[in-house]
Amino acid sequence: MEDPIWTALPAEARDEVDDNLRLRRFVMAMKVIRDASPAPVPGLAACSDLVAARYEELGLGRP
Description:
single chain, 63 residues
């Protein structure tokens, strides 16, 4: 995934986001993104877009 927010996350945070998405825990996935992101922290809309794109990329359908 070539999203700048995604690539800025540490590997363990990306893994945690993916784990949350597999369990359909979208809000927790967004929290992990915001907590692990370097400043400036991405807004909720950007996190929501990223979660939706990542969910589809993992082959899980559409959120």
